Each structure stands twice: as C-alpha cells, then as structure tokens.
C-alpha cells in the first residue's frame, strides 16, 4: 500500500460529499509563522523613512563636487564634438 505524500491527500471518500457551507476541521488550516526579523525589519525601515520625512530641515547639501560627477563631466567633454 503506497504511503500518501501529504497528510491532506489521504482523506476518506465521505469527506468529498461535504457541503460547502459546513465548517472545515482544524487539521485543514495552514499555520503561517514568520521569523521575528520579517516583521521587525520593515517596521524599522518604515520608522526611519518616517523620521526622514518629518525632519527635512536638518538635511544638508554636499558642498564639494563628487568625484563621480567630475568623471562624468570630463567624459562628456571628451565625447562632445
């Protein structure tokens, strides 16, 4: 006799005649468990973004040209006709 691969795959023939309105037994419920970090990390990220939005007056612009900007500018000057 073959062993069923999944516990719910082995059901008595009577269960297929149940009406749709009858409640399902507790064994058919799927329990979803998340690790603690799956909830904590999005909450921390949301809080950090919320803090940045709430206090934009403390942000300061960079005073020096970044090296990448200078590189792009020089590359455009070399490629321009």
Helix/strand layout:
Elements: H1 36-54, H2 67-79
Query: Overall 3D geometry?
Result: elongated
Largest sheet: none
Distance between the termini: 81 Å
Percentage of residues in helical conformation: 25-40%
Q: Which structural class fits the helix and strand makeup? A: mainly alpha
Please mark out the parts with pLDDT under 50 across 5 or more consecutive residues, or reply none.
none
Oligomer: single chain
The run of helices and strands is HH
Overall mean confidence score, pLDDT: 75
Our Rg estimate from Cα atoms comes to 30 Å
Characterize this entry briefly.
The protein is mainly α and 81 residues long.
3D structure, described in words:
- The chain is an all-alpha fold.
- The chain has two helices and no strands.
- The termini are far apart.
- The mean pLDDT is 75.
List keywords for this structure.
81 residues; 2 helices
């Amino acid at each position: 006799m073959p062993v069923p691969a999944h516990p719910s795959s082995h059901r008595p023939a009577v269960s297929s005649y149940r009406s749709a309105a009858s409640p399902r037994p507790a064994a058919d419920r799927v329990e979803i468990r998340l690790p603690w970090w799956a909830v904590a990390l999005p909450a921390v990220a949301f809080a950090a973004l919320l803090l940045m939005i709430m206090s934009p007056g403390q942000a300061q612009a960079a005073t020096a040209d970044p090296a990448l900007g200078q590189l792009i500018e020089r590359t455009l000057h070399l490629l321009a006709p």
